[in-house]
Amino acid sequence: MTMHLISVIGSSPGVGKSTLCRAVAQWLTSVGASVDHFEEADILTRSAFRPVAEEFASETAAVQPATLIECTRAYVAESLAAGKDYLVTDALLPFIPSLVAWGHDEGTLVQVMEDLSRAAELAQVTVVYVHDNPEAALRRAVEREGDAWEDWYVRKLADSPGTRAVHDLSSAAAHLRFEAALTCRLLAQTPWHVLNVNVGTLNAQEAYAYTQCHLMDVLELSGRPST
User: pTM for this one?
Assistant: First the structure.
């Protein structure tokens, strides 16, 4: 059986990617599969990504693309050796928001996507891209997390080399719109299957049902979707 890597990524905070990622991992576990649910914060604690954590803790807080690529290769190989059927990852591949924030240009990112594709070639990769209007998504994030989160998010972007033009939520939304277009261009150049989930008109349950239905085809799973 082919090992599948399902990477759930979002165009913005507030789109519900972590909720969707968790639901997909629980569903696949419920059908008896061996699933690794890789949560967003796990990149700083997993052994395969220890070099990433070490570089992130450095003075620049930036990680080299080569490090991300080699750690991805190690994670896929480690998971295959452990007999995993599915790797369901939250905001892992293909690292675009972080690479943009660290100041890498599109030409560099094209090469990174090619290298990541080779690094993950032992798995069949599906990217679930959860997206919405960035203004609406950011409003939801602020409502959920509070005003302190808004200040932290804007400051985080403003302090990074590739996103220094951000100074408020409006400019953050403009950056996210640019980043979404870049993400779509880059993903189109990979051999990966990309499932677009527009949550502008879907609630969390509807987004999950849509995703599950399409993943059943991609993963060639039989039976009826769960509710």
Answer: 0.95
Which amino acid appears at position 107 of this protein? Answer: G
> How many angstroms separate the CA atoms of 90 and 19, rounded?
9
Per-residue pLDDT of the chain (227 residues; tens, 9 = 90+): 799 999 999 999 999 999 999 999 999 999 999 999 999 999 999 999 999 999 999 988 899 999 999 999 999 999 999 999 999 999 999 999 999 999 999 999 999 999 999 999 999 999 999 999 999 999 999 999 999 999 999 999 999 999 999 999 999 999 999 999 999 999 999 999 999 999 999 999 999 999 999 999 999 887 655 55
Region of 210 on the Ramachandran plot (φ > 0 left; ψ -120 to 50 alpha; else beta): alpha
Cα–Cα distance, 100 to 125 (Å, whole number): 22
Contact 215, 195 (CB under 8 A): yes
Q: Which tokens is 113 given?
A: 């996507």
Q: What is the CA 58 to chain-centroid distance, rounded? A: 23
